[in-house]
Amino acid sequence: MTSPFAAGEELWRARLGTLRQAVRQEIVTRQLAAHLGDRPGLRALDIGCGQGTQALRLARRGHAVTGLDGSATLLADLGRSLRDEPEAVRDRVRPVLGDALSTAGLFAAGSFDAVLCHGVLMYLPDPVPLLAAIARVTAPGGLVSLLVRNGDALAMRPGLLRDWAAAAGAFDGAGYRNRIGVQARADRLSDLAAALAAAGLEVECWYGVRVFTDAAGDEEPVPGPDAFGLLIDCEERAGRTDPYRSVAALLHVLARRPPA
Question: Which of 17, 32, 109, 195 has the highest CB neighbour number within 10 Å of its CB?
Answer without folding.
Answer: 32
